[in-house]
Amino acid sequence: MLMAATTPRTSGALSPAVAGEEATSDAQVMLRVKAGDQSAFDYLVQKYRRPLVSFMYRMARNAAAAEDLAQEVFLRVYRSRESYEASAKFTTWLYRIATNLAVNHARDTRHERPEVTVSLDEPDEESGATFELPDSSLTAEQAMVRRERLLAIRQKVEALPEQQRLAVIMHKYQQMDYKQIAEVLKKSESATKSLLFRAYETLREQLKEFV
């Protein structure tokens, strides 16, 4: 597998070609990949693998599919290395590839997507704690309410129109700003703000019992 083969074995270690150059942008690293630097590609895989798997999971709702889709993103990045131009932020280019793959997968599998659930060993998006390990600061009732709230949020986000769902996932879960999201979705910044405003208004209305 590409990610397994290219990710450095030492967890958290930067590739030798990139380590020590904190000012180096991801676009510059990708230009090294273009020039044939394999360790630069390994560094990008290491840096973006988890965020991409998370993004794909929120779109596909299937862990195996999320891993496969993330790997396909890196395959496409590598195959496109010779034509890469640093005309935009690397993350914009990366998430355009990821978004196209995620949207196509969602459309192809919309009749077979599993019911939205909350895994016991999956971290809470706000606290980072897992449901399998009880939070001593919460009563059993509070923990149940929190779990129900998390499940409701996921269900409502998944039910949003496609463009709104993509924008919310990038904004809330990938911590991307309006400008980045606008570039990925190929919209103006004002249109992106309007898109997110409508999405969050819908979510607030549908989730008001949990607020």
Report on this model:
Helices cover 62% and strands 0% of the residues. It has 211 residues and is an all-alpha fold. It has helices spanning 2-6, 26-34, 38-60, 63-79, 90-108, 140-159, 162-173, 178-185, 189-206. α2 crosses α3 and α3 crosses α5. The chain contains 9 helices and no strands. The longest helix is centred in the N-terminal third of the chain and has 23 residues, at 38-60. The model is unreliable at 4-14, 19-23 and 115-134 (pLDDT under 50).
Keywords:
single chain, 211 residues, mainly alpha, Rna Polymerase Sigma Factor, Chain: A, 9 helices
Q: Determine the number of helices (DSSP H or I, runs of at least 4 residues).
A: 9
The tally of strands reads 0
Alpha carbon gap, first and last residue: 43 Å
Secondary-structure content class: mainly alpha
Shape: globular
Low-pLDDT runs of 5+ residues are 4-14, 19-23, 115-134
Instruction: Determine Rg (CA atoms, Å).
Output: 19 Å
Helix content: 55-70%
Beta percentage is under 5%
CATH-scheme architecture of the domain at 1-114: Orthogonal Bundle
Round the mean pLDDT to the nearest integer and report it: 79
The secondary-structure element order is HHHHHHHHH
